Amino acid sequence: GKKITIAIDGHSSTGKSTVAKRLAKELGYIYVDTGAMYRAVTLYMMRKMFVSENNFNEEAILRHLPFVDLEFKLNETTGNADMYMETENVEEEIRYMEVSKHVSRVSAIPDVRRKLVEQQQEMGKEKGVVMDGRDIGTVVFPDAELKIFMTASTEKRAQRRYEELKARGEDVEYEEVEKNVKERDYMDSTRKDSPLVRAEDAIEFDNSEMDLEEQFEKILKIAKDKI
Ligand code: C5P
């Protein structure tokens, strides 16, 4: 059959990446986690001290942006693509709570978005790609053949993210995670440049009460019908 582009958007911790990753494996498609790219840029700027609890130096961020060198490389052990900054594997570090706290502010900067969107369009230009994020169906690939918009209640999402962080050994409080999920929802949905909105032609999936397995099966069926 033909290769298509699958865009999966939605709020934080809706299980987008879990579904997207499985879908890509099942279809033999490339999976691109665009959140990882925004997280890596944020980490880079945090290390330079341009972004911290009490500092946000947009001018310095813009000046250093051209030097941020990102790449996905296949991890032979897990079979997944890991995020690399130059030669360093930052896959784990970009998921830290500290990065989550600053990422929405960094990703609201239009020049940051322009740079990453360009790379994303390049990665998906041959189709046969499953990409997840916030603006894939609206901005990166408005012509994607299949667009999914995933939602779930704030409590369910915060609970999932909390369990994920705990499982990875991070020392976090549930309240802190819930607050971060809400803040990112708000910032991502209200920013001027490519805010998180459901594309008109996206199919919405609420998984508050549905398990991801069931959801994956449904999405896979829809995808196969289009291929
Ligand atoms: O998907 P994930 O939760 O890892 O994304 C982290 C953050 O990166 C989001 O909260 C959002 O601020 C930003 N992001 C974005 N556009 C995308 C993907 C992620 O602005 N396409």
TrEMBL record:
Q: Which Pfam families match?
A: Cytidylate_kin
Positions that bind ATP: 10-18
Which cellular component appears as one GO term in the record? cytosol
UniProt entry keywords in alphabetical sequence: ATP-binding, Cytoplasm, Kinase, Nucleotide-binding, Transferase
Q: Which residue numbers delimit the Cytidylate kinase domain?
A: 6-224
The record's annotation in InterPro entries points to: Cytidylate_kin, Cytidylate_kinase_dom, P-loop_NTPase
Indicate where this protein is primarily found.
cytoplasm
Q: What is its EC number?
A: 2.7.4.25
The lineage's top-level taxon is Bacteria
Q: Could you tell me what reaction this enzyme catalyses?
A: CMP + ATP = CDP + ADP; dCMP + ATP = dCDP + ADP
Compartmental location:
Cytoplasm
Q: GO terms for molecular function, please?
A: ATP binding; dCMP kinase activity
User: Which family is annotated?
Assistant: Belongs to the cytidylate kinase family. Type 1 subfamily.
This protein's name: Cytidylate kinase
| Organism this protein belongs to | Christiangramia oceanisediminis
List the taxonomic lineage.
Bacteria, Pseudomonadati, Bacteroidota, Flavobacteriia, Flavobacteriales
Quick one: which gene encodes this?
cmk
